[in-house]
Amino acid sequence: QQMASTPRQWTEQETEQFVAFMEELVVEGKRADAGQFKPGAFQKLADKMNEKFPGCGLTVKHIRNKHKRLKEKYMFVAEMLGCSGFGWNSEKMCVEVDSKQVLEAWGKGRNVTLYTPGKPFPLFERLGGIFGKDRATGLDACSGKDAEEDVTPGSTFAAATAGGLGLAGDDVDMEDLAAAESELPNTFSTSFASS
Hints:
Distance between the termini: 51 Å
Radius of gyration: 17 Å
């Protein structure tokens, strides 16, 4: 029998610092096209994190997984914002959606929810500086009328999720776990009450 590997729980402080270190690498020109980092960058990030948080034990694999998950979540939200009916509230740092119908249409054909409107995602704007070059391909991903055709096999999002998220063996964020547990229809009442 195999032992399931225990997911690495990232604290908010670690995530925040990780994004700051990625921003530094972008400034230093360590990012290649399409938001990917150049060889060696992940090792450098792991070293920086271990220096900043002694004893955190983060490996290059943890760093790669975290980079991938932040990118997937960023792309998911960026694609959402490219569709009519969704908007970014910079005061609350969250996506707002016009109606439950808009969100349901968006969810059709997507087997995964990486973000729910109404939840604060304060890192989104900063992640745009790291992954933002990829965003153009997501913007034509939908129009209000043909929601079913949102995800074509060639779209960025389909590519990002085709391999599954692999959360079982990968690192998991506390916020991701919380998000997964709260993906119930009744969460709508809270996000719409305010609009």
